[in-house]
UniProtKB/TrEMBL annotation:
Annotated gene: arfB
Biased composition (Basic residues): 117-126
Keyword Nucleotide-binding: no
Protein name, per record: Aminoacyl-tRNA hydrolase
Entry's EC annotation: 3.1.1.29
The organism of origin for this protein: Vibrio paucivorans
Alphabetical list of InterPro entries matching this protein: Pep_chain_release_fac_I, Pep_chain_release_fac_I_sf
Domain Prokaryotic-type class I peptide chain release factors positions: 21-37
An example Gene Ontology molecular-function term: peptidyl-tRNA hydrolase activity
Region entry Disordered, spans: 102-137
Length: 137
């Protein structure tokens, strides 16, 4: 069971975990041991509340397919248990992040001081470039 918040949890049967061989440079056991984890979670057929489902499916994330399946590949650690824990944590963070509502941006105008500084900088630059020109008699 994966805890997302105080009220929302994901049951273990909803998450499909598969052990695969990790990519990368060879080394001891790298071609023999399946230490990487491939996690798949079907958002559309899950027991998540509708609000969570809508927000997740609206995300533009490469880990979410058109069918609404989240795929996470964890291969950072050497052991299968650590990679499994990492994949589950990343899934929980993705779901939590989808529910965060962004603050609406308030439009502001530049201050009088910032306008003056900008114009002064432009004038300084202008005179510098003007001095590079040909000498006038």
């Amino acid at each position: 069971m994966l805890k997302i918040s105080n009220t929302v949890t994901i049951q273990a049967w909803e998450i499909q975990l598969t052990a695969i061989r990790a990519q990368g440079a060879g080394g001891q056991n790298v071609n023999k041991v399946s230490s990487a984890i491939h996690l798949q979670f079907d958002v559309a057929h899950s027991t998540l509340p509708p609000f969570y489902k809508e927000r997740l499916l609206a995300l533009r994330d490469s880990r979410i397919s058109k069918e609404g399946v989240i795929t996470i590949k964890a291969q950072q650690f050497r052991t299968q248990e650590q990679n499994k824990e990492d994949a589950l944590n990343r899934l929980a963070e993705l779901i939590r992040g989808a529910t965060v509502v962004q603050k609406k941006r308030k439009e502001t105008k530049p201050t009088k001081g910032s306008k003056e500084r900008r114009l002064k900088a432009k004038k300084t630059r202008s005179t510098t470039k003007e001095l590079r020109g040909k000498y006038k008699f």
